[in-house]
Structure formats: C-alpha cells, structure tokens
Amino acid sequence: MRLLLQIITTLVIVAYPLAVYFGLQYLPPGYIALLLCALLLTRMIVTKQQVRAMVLPLIVGIGLTGASFIAKRNDWLLYYPVVINLSLLSLFGYSLIHGPSMIERLARIKEPDLPGSATPYLRTITQLWCGLFVVNGAMAAYTAVATTIEMWTLYNGLIAYVLIGMLLSGEWTYRRFWLKKHD
C-alpha cells in the first residue's frame, strides 16, 4: 500500500501543473487546492525518512494549497513550481559549498570508483544544474504572475520538464564519453 501511495503521489507531483490547470477548469472552486493539499500531505507521510531534503518544499506546498483553499485564492497554487526550483537550487548550491557536489554524489551511486579528475567536472555540472533551477524558478514565477493559466501550464508542465530532460540526458551521455577519455 505504501509503494502504491508513493507512486500515485509522485505522479501527481510531476503532473502538478496539469492537475492545477484541469482542476481550475473543471472542478468547483477550491476543490483542486484541497485535493492537492491532501496528496502533498500523503506524500510527506509516505516518504518521511526517504527524502528529508524535500520535506520543506512539501510543507510549503501543503501550506500553499491549504491556504489557497481557505482564502479561496487559486492563484497561490501557481507558486509551487517556484518553491520546488528554489528548494533544488538550495540543495545543489549547498552541495557546492559543503561538497561533494550533488552531481558527484548522484554519479557515485552508480559509479563509486570515479577518478579524482571527475570531481571538478561534476562540480561544473552541478553549477549548470543550479543555473537551470534559477532559470526555471524565474520562469515559473513569471508565468505565475504575468501570463495566462495556459502559458503557466505549458511552461511548468512541459517546457521545464523538456529542459530538465535535455540537461539530464545530455550530461549523462557526455559523461560516458568523458569518463572513457579520462580513464
């Protein structure tokens, strides 16, 4: 049951922009905020020990969705992608200061015997991710404040994921070649 809840809540968080868009279009006012609040709360409960770093954004998301329901302010739902990007920027930025870099940590899960020469490269990639989180966060804020719900949904529900996917797959592919060259 716990695994099923984790899968469902993960899918909802990934599909958050689409859920907001369709919820605002087809559900009575406030219902999507209440539903998202319940799902984020469930997510926090079922992942309590697994992803400590993401507890704060979940709490903020619960606060945003709960307050949105209480205040009857649907526009507050649009700020959750900003919170996620700021949280990831903080997490990756912290790793740059206190090391090892986040990308090095993630790379060592799959390849624990990375050469020492990989550390500066992986640090640079972590900086690149920080830049992406700044851009995505700024665009998420801009689309929440100054555009239509359709544009907000397009950016936060598609374009942001495409940018993340491109960086993730491009860096992973390049790293394969880089590691062979530096072995």
Helix content: over 70%
Q: Helical segment tally?
A: 8
Shape: elongated
Structural class: mainly alpha
Helix and strand pattern: HHHHHHHH
Average pLDDT rating: 88
How would a textbook summarize the main sheet?
none
State the oligomer: single chain
* Unreliable spans: none
Structure characteristics:
8 helices; 183 residues; mainly alpha; elongated
Explain this structure to me?
The chain is mainly alpha-helical and 183 residues long. It has eight helices and no strands. The protein has helices at 2-14, 16-26, 31-46, 55-71, 80-98, 102-110, 118-146, 149-181. The radius of gyration is 18 Å and the shape is elongated. The model has no long low-confidence stretch (mean pLDDT 88).
Write the layout of secondary structure elements.
Layout: H1 2-14, H2 16-26, H3 31-46, H4 55-71, H5 80-98, H6 102-110, H7 118-146, H8 149-181
Helix pairs in contact: 1-3, 2-3, 2-8, 3-4, 4-5, 5-7, 6-7, 7-8
Brief digest:
This protein is mostly helical. 80% of the residues lie in helices and 0% in strands.
